[in-house]
Design goal:
2 copies of one chain form a homodimer.
Chain A lengths: L1 H9 L9 H12 L3 H8 L4 H10 L2 H11 L5 H6 L2 H10 L2 H9 L3 H8 L4 H10 L2 H11 L6 H4 L6 E3 L4 H10 L9 E5 L5 E6 H6 L17 E2 L4 H11 L3 E5 L5 E6 H19 L11 H27 L2 H6 L2 H29 L8 H30 L3 H31 L4 H29 L1
Parallel strand pairs in A: 1-2, 4-5
Antiparallel strand pairs in A: 2-3, 5-6
Helix pairs in contact in A: 2-3, 8-10, 9-11, 15-16, 16-22, 17-22, 19-21, 19-22, 20-21, 21-22
Subunit structure (chains A, B): Homodimer.
Protein name (chains A, B): Magnesium transporter MgtE
InterPro entries (chains A, B): CBS_dom, Mg_transptr_MgtE_intracell_dom, MgtE_transporter, SLC41_membr_dom
């Protein structure tokens, strides 16, 4: 407890943070094994908040929490959980509670829930579904991972394109199984190909005799069922879509994607980019030490190879360094500045590729700009560091060498910072994943080589 | 042209990328000064795509494009443009075209458009608006920057809470000035305080006599008008909101925020985080060299100070290095591995703070995990590098020193990687902005000090 109090003091509380007032009654209920108190404490919480809380507590507390919550456990909580924790929670749930929990979910939520589970857990959940839902889920799972087909819901509202507003309203009134969330009525031709859509707001404000065709939105776009979900999220954000019909290869309507799902994907893709740029693969805060070590080790191994390469360069100049130890003192500055400048350029390039802003129209201009920026920044720091180097070690030529190496390395950093991600992207490798290692290898090797090589020529 | 062709070969084309077939007719029209051809080429494009194209071409082409497009220029294009380019385009637009363009925008789009403009351009646009719109925009501008008040639209549909479905539908039919996009009817009490909302889908499928009160959604949440837009975006993503009423300090309804705006904010905030983590402040691909230099220089300057600090540490061990040059060869490895491990930890921590997943409930457990991960990874690489160091320079004790320094630095990296962002967050400094510099300072200084210090004790 004393430990938690201190944590409370360190962590800044803010809006929507699970604060002590929320968490304390839950933890008390778990400690006392009081099922009713736990249910009461969870009652005002959104499933997403309950899921966050389950992620934040330790393993034992989590299992006890799930067991005490019992019958009340809601399928939406499972949807909101991180993968690792999700598997644990499913294992801790009583099979009947699990079956009950998933039965209320929409088909796209079930797909999202089970696509990353082990086969055994997947079957457990599929068996719990009604036959029609099960078929829908299995069909969605037949589409490629991370495709629009996995993301879409099959529940939707479509109408023949020749209907009028009154016809549509009567039709909707007659059906009580409308989707939980829908924002458009999709117009389809006789072969079920979407030809437009009308917002509910327009339908409601139009006269009953208005043809639906007269109310269609300009923003209408269909999404191919095999499209990558990252592109789907891009389309929603770029074109301000609220929902979009998904079509198969014959352009026939097979589902609908709504903006909330697209927003969740946008969020995940960003998260992935940030973590990949930092050399952290997948991973969440609730992963255990072993999982975290396993996720980060490969990146550190790549960095080790990079670092050894740089060391091999330094090794070539051992006699130079032995003759002039100041070089050993100053050489990390050149490499470090190059690494930072390279990271700046590559991050801008990786983002621009992700947002489709770096294209053949502006590639050369961007490269020229990065090189120019590298040169200008290099020159500015060359003057500063040249002076420092010259004064610190009372050797003017050392300052000149440092300055020249700085300019060379920052220009190379700008060039590599754009070219490496662009080439990786062309090779269909995620530039966020691999650019960092390549670019810092370049700036380390060039930095040490330029600095020590120039020193060997000029100073000895 | 030859240059562009090569760019075409380097850049991977994909979905939603502005490809040559789209761009070529536009550039041809500009080159030939053919206004009609340009209008025809732009006709099938979404304003967001026209904006992207304006960002990607060079300055001269952009100005000519804007002038040739003339009267057809749409206000939505302005909304979609990056800030820097936006100012240029506004300056290039004929005042009458500009006035016409902004008049069709919703109030929240006008606010978004002008809030970052210079006073002169801001007034130009405000003057173009109808008086009622101008008042609405000025009122929104009176709320703090990056608050819900700036983000919300004032166009909304509200109804007294005692109405039934038929009453609402008749009311909507009678009004032809309904907002362009709306998804809920907000129920308000007599003092205009929102008490719930009903989706349009539910209204349409319910009988006319159903009380609205019976149809309200569980997901209902209000947003305080002063709430930070980052928190607004978080709430939409966390609670799967589609729209949310915005309330003033007396809980009275003042506007509505819709998910598409929240999605755009989420995207911007992520972009900002990624760029800040990489030491790139604001900035876009269309910035000029001078602007880019200015944005990146401060970060490189901070890094320079960091690097000099590390050099000062090395300087303390000049005689040790002079006696044993292998130390100079190997020392960057220790610093580099520490820097990478620290960046991994800090990125995870910065993200977890942004997503509100790092709280007082799990801070200590996360710190313990990061330290443990640092130790395990450190130990693994210690063995590998210890062997390399010992064999490379035929000095077993050098291997031992390298291994020990590696473990120390990776443990410290894990600790600093969590604590630095958490403390910065507590101090209300964006951890994405400053963590990197602090953490790499720590890992550089500790890395060099541990390695060279141990070497001084053990090897000499």
């Amino acid at each position: 407890m004393a430990e938690d109090q201190t944590a409370e003091e360190i962590i800044a509380e803010g809006d929507y943070v699970l604060d002590r007032d929320t968490v304390a009654p839950v933890l008390n209920a778990v400690r006392e094994g009081d099922s009713d108190a736990l249910i009461a404490a969870f009652d005002p919480l959104h499933p997403a908040d309950i899921a966050d809380l389950l992620e934040q507590v330790d393993d034992d507390t989590r299992v006890r929490m799930v067991q005490l919550y019992g019958q009340e456990f809601d399928g939406d909580i499972l949807s909101e959980l991180d993968e690792g924790v999700r598997e644990e929670v499913i294992a801790a749930l009583h099979p009947e509670v699990l079956a009950e929990a998933v039965r209320d979910l929409e088909s796209d939520d079930v797909v999202d829930l089970i696509e990353d589970l082990e086969d055994e857990q997947q079957n457990l959940i599929l068996d719990a579904l009604a036959v029609s839902d099960r078929v829908a889920v299995e069909q969605s799972l037949s589409y490629p991972e991370e495709s629009a087909g996995r993301l879409m819901q099959r529940e939707m509202v479509a109408a023949p394109e020749h209907w009028d507003v009154g016809h549509v309203i009567d039709h909707m009134r007659a059906h009580d199984d409308l989707p939980g969330q829908f924002y458009h009525v999709i117009l389809v031709d006789p072969r079920m190909r979407p030809t437009g859509y009308v917002t509910l707001g327009r339908i409601m404000s139009a006269a009953r005799t208005t043809p639906m065709r007269d109310l269609v939105e300009d923003s209408f776009r269909t999404i191919p069922v095999t499209q990558d979900e990252e592109d789907v999220a891009y389309a929603f954000n770029q074109y301000h879509l609220i929902s979009a019909p998904v079509v198969d290869e014959d352009d026939r309507l097979v589902g609908v994607i709504t903006i909330d799902d697209a927003m969740a994907i946008l969020d995940e893709e960003h998260e992935e980019d940030i973590l990949r740029l930092a050399g952290v693969g997948e991973g969440s805060l609730s992963d255990r030490v072993v999982e975290t070590v396993r996720a980060r080790l490969p990146w550190l191994a790549v960095n080790l190879v990079t670092a050894i390469l740089a060391s091999l360069v330094i090794d070539q100049f051992e006699t130079v360094i032995a003759g002039f130890v100041a070089l050993a003192v100053l050489m990390p500055i050149v490499a470090s500045m190059g690494g930072n400048a390279g990271t700046q350029s590559l991050t801008v390039a990786v983002r621009a590729l992700a947002t489709k802003d770096l294209t053949s129209s502006n590639l050369w201009r961007v490269i020229r700009r990065e090189v120019a920026v590298g040169f200008v920044n290099g020159a500015i720091f060359a003057i500063a560091m040249g002076a420092v180097g010259a004064l610190w070690f009372s050797t003017p030529m050392l300052g000149v060498v440092l300055a020249a190496a700085m300019i060379i390395n920052l220009v190379i950093a700008g060039l590599a910072g754009v070219l490496v991600p662009v080439v990786l992207d062309k090779l269909k490798i995620d530039p966020a994943l691999a650019s960092g290692a390549f670019v810092t290898t370049v700036t380390d090797v060039v930095g040490f080589f330029a600095f020590l090589g120039l020193a060997a020529v000029v100073l000895l």
